[in-house]
Design goal:
Low-confidence stretches: 10-35
Structural class: mainly alpha
Number of helices: 10
Mean pLDDT: 80
Strand content: under 5%
Helix content: over 70%
Number of strands: 0
Shape: globular
Length: about 180
């Protein structure tokens, strides 16, 4: 039967490994961003204030899938952050048009589309479009994805913008009850 060796202090032979890790760790986020998806990459650029790089990261996604509403919303955020309001509105316009065609079949995509359409309506000041999204788009999404707090948070934001604080508070409380702890 073999005897177990006692674990002692760090040996000299493990120091090169530790030194290597200390050198590599600061660059791990850069390495990970190379392998991250375009939306994650764009989010990282946006956080770091690199708005043109954020837009460039999502352009291919939007071109490949024009109904990727999350990519469009992220692109619009980057355009807005860099002061290009007209481009942000143009990127979100297809979401506003799609709402007129009827609800999205996939609840997750529907929530992203509703968020993009609401943002478009906010940027253009189209109160009728805001009302249309809240009345037509959000109720089916709340039924299709009852545990997702995002539709309620969108409604709360719109109620706040309209000065309806009591209704906004009710929606926020309902969203908090749905949100994971």
């Amino acid at each position: 039967m073999r005897k177990k060796r006692k674990q002692g202090p760090i040996r000299f032979s493990s120091l090169p490994s530790i030194f290597f890790l200390l050198l590599v760790i600061p660059y791990a986020s850069r390495i990970a961003s190379v392998h991250a998806g375009p939306l994650e990459e764009a989010s990282e650029h946006l956080k770091r204030g690199r708005y043109d790089e954020a837009v460039a990261a999502v352009v291919k996604t939007v071109e490949t899938d024009p109904s990727d509403w999350a990519a469009r919303a992220l692109s619009a955020r980057a355009h807005l952050a860099s002061g290009r309001r007209a481009e942000a509105i143009a990127v979100l316009r297809p979401a506003a048009d799609a709402v007129l065609k009827g609800p999205e079949k996939d609840p997750a995509r529907g929530i992203d589309r509703a968020a993009a359409a609401l943002r478009h309506a906010e940027l253009t000041g189209d109160a009728e479009a805001i009302k249309r999204v809240i009345e037509r788009e959000l109720p089916p999404l709340e039924l299709a994805a009852p545990q997702d707090p995002r539709p309620r948070l969108m409604k709360a934001r719109m109620f706040l913008r309209a000065g309806q604080k009591h209704e906004a508070k009710a929606e926020i409380e309902a969203a908090k009850a749905l949100a994971p702890a």
